[in-house]
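pinging the channel bc i need a second pair of eyes. not urgent but kinda urgent?? the chain im working w is below, pasted from the shared doc
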Amino acid sequence: MLSVSEVRAKAKNVAAWLVDKERPDEAVGLLTAWAANGPNDPEGQDLLAEALRIDPSAPLAQMAFERMEGMEGDHAALDQHIQAYSIERINQIEAEMRRPTFRRAQMGFNNNIKFHGVPYHVQTEDSGLDAPHIITHLFADGGRVIKSHKRDYSEHVNRPDVADYVRGLMKAQHMEMVLMLRDGKFDGIIAGREVGGVTMLTEPPQEVQKIARRKQEAPSATTHEPPAVAAAPAQVPHFSLVVMRSLTGGPERYDPVGEEVVIGAQGGVNLPGEIFCHPTEALLRWRDDALFIEDLEGGNGVFFRIHTAVELEIGDEFIVGDQLLRVEKNPAPDDGPDPDPTYFYSSPKWPSSFRIIQVFEGGAAGACVVARGNSMQIGSAVGDLIFADDPLVEEQHCVIEEQASTVVLTDLGSRTGVFVRVRGEQELPHGTELLVGRTRLVVDLKR
């Protein structure tokens, strides 16, 4: 028979897994149940603190606190959760943690989004392997369904990786609905000119652009030397880089020859006078009638202009105007009770998915803004992060939001654009705009 202390340890571990699987309500219910089900000691107080970190306004947490402190109140909901989250139920969830596939429906995604200043809600649900389909609803006006998308995945239920496949499909379908709302695809329905309803989709969902992460097996940056001058047949360049902006002069365009060329003072695209460009910043590679760029690391990086929503990871960098910004994970809270116990009192908190850090020349951190909930807007006049003195930043420049457990960056139609740092190897279609230091280049593919 497990002791209360051992069960509480299991409950904390299971709750962390539930949060990771986007099931925070269950995690709060489990934590508060076992905080109140036992002595009011540091272990119980720690569980209550974890519940408050997940949802600072959870009524169950308030009930658990009152129960632990011997205060009177209506604790019926808490008693129901104490009964529901028995040792047997904790063991069942632990078995689910170890299960390689699933039978019942996977936990879905629920996110709020603002469009033209109006709040909407996107909800994606899975029906499970017994009725294999995924449905996404777009809500407005506090509950009116604007549009629903449904996809059947019955032909994939026997895949060995079916759980991961369905999770990825849910995520992509959820993001597809968000992008279609932002693209104005539902404006007629919202205005009442068209009928919404449910659409059964058979094509794969429209996905958010991803930054390439795979690194090629290539020599390190220090091994890229400028090619030796030697007599050779004349070569026709595969591509050109047209200089759109340079603060230091130099040529108006670069027409490198060969299959590979380095961007940097030691390469064929040397950007004279560009102090923010490393001697070997990036490698351009012509392969299979396409142009690729690979970050050689060690420098400030090369950034490409985005034209669609782009998926970011923690640590990715992007440029808005003349501002270098980085996406970071919020630090773990350390506001638990002390041994007395005395609970930490602070200003009101709100749930937050990420934070954005301004990076100064030399690498020092500047402004730091925490997302309110799951989104943050950047601009010169409107937004959560304001750069009023940067003439290259629009009033409403871009938005970063967490949707379906993914951080997504979207340009709000700005004149000067948003640039994301290249990671790994990235293909560069014709017309791609690059930013190296303060120098802006445009890719012109020779055909």
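so Residues 172 and 207 are 6 Å apart (CA to CA). and The first strand starts at residue 109 and ends at 115. — does that match what u expected or am i reading it wrong
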